[in-house]
Amino acid sequence: HTLHSLVTILGTWALIQAQPCSCHALALAWTFSYLLFFRALSLLGLPTPTPFTNAVQLLLTLKLVSLASEVQDLHLAQRKEMASGFSKGPTLGLLPDVPSLMETLSYSYCYVGIMTGAPGPCC
């Protein structure tokens, strides 16, 4: 069942690397298409995933679409910066660079982000 999450992550990473300017829409289509396939495994005569695997796949779908959106925002900011002809410092709220495969895998499989959610507000 781990292969399902790995296929989703690798597919999204490949889309981000190939088309950073439109990777959000592509990642959205890819991850939700794979999620549809994943949910239809029992209809295709393949083993039904466990509830834990299902939860991981659902959360990965959301995380990877969000990551692709951030990469697309970074790419658009870099294009605007190049068009304006000058370089200003790093923009707050943007990724510093397009994530590598290892960074994408680390982000995707981070336990805190995948199974416990975001931390609550600070006091």
UniProtKB/TrEMBL annotation:
Highest taxon of the lineage: Eukaryota
Record's keyword annotation contains Signal: yes
Signal sequence, start to end: 1-18
GO molecular function, one term: lysophospholipid acyltransferase activity
GO cellular component: membrane; mitochondria-associated endoplasmic reticulum membrane contact site
A GO biological-process term: phosphatidylinositol biosynthetic process
Metabolic or biological pathway, per its Swiss-Prot or TrEMBL entry: Lipid metabolism
Record keywords, A-Z: Signal
Family: Belongs to the membrane-bound acyltransferase family.
Protein name, per record: MBOAT7 isoform 12
Species the sequence originates in: Pongo abelii (Sumatran orangutan)
